[in-house]
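User: My instructor asked us to take a sequence, write out its structure as tokens, and then describe one feature of it. I'm not sure where to start. Here is the sequence I was given:
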Amino acid sequence: MVRTQAGGAKRTARVLKGIAALILALAIWSFGIEPASLVVRHETLHIPSWSGPPVTLAVVADLHVGSPWCHIGKLRRVVDELNAAHADTTILLGDYVIQGVLGGRFIPPDRIAAELRNLRGPTYAVLGNHDGWYNAHTVDAALRSAGIVVLNDESIERGQFVLAGITDLWTGKHDIPRALANIRPEVPVILLTHNPDIFPQVPARVALTLAGHTHGGQVNLPFVGRLIVPSRYGSRYAAGHIVEGGRQLFVTTGVGTSIIPVRFRVPPEIVILTIDK
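Assistant: Let's start with the prediction itself. The structure tokens for your sequence are:
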């Protein structure tokens, strides 16, 4: 009996040690390894209303430069990867700065823009809620000083398609009719927005909407899903390619972190999108 009890105690101790080791490993991965990584993901989207040859877009959102594991060195790596894609157009979907992320250090917009200046080829941007909370005018001016075109409820023709950008849903006017005004009806439109919650208001006239903001929830647990997504729609627009009523949305999960510097099964990403019919 004594031996049996002793054997049971040892097995229990081994199980507890195993659980503790697993928790430690998950913590190291979620707080130190995955947030520091960078994935370059390639996607092809088939858009029925698309006309002309395929177009490649290098898309990135939520840089949150200054958040843990997203320092200036990481931003330089992002810029290098965007340039290496040799895309037709580079798209920046907002939230360049941080506020209040645990362990973060604020990096001013002009310092961020100094690195983004190294992007090659045409680059277009919209602002996010953190940019608005900090100072939308300051962030806008910094990006423009780096040669980046910021689209504030306006559009620009890119040959076979039009890029339209709207101001942030939480901190801007997000005037969709103004952004889509005076666009020739036969030209496909790609709409840039920071927050995907605007998608239900986007008319069918738009071929594709691109968004960020959600970070994919930062944590995506097996069998449970994404615990916290900053969206009134829960996980409906959390990440990836979404098609509703023939309208198409793509949400990238971004690079940096917000509030808590953790990522689990939602690695920082750059997305290289090929748009084709």
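For the description part of your assignment, you could build on this observation: The mean pLDDT is 93. Try explaining in your own words what that tells you about the chain.
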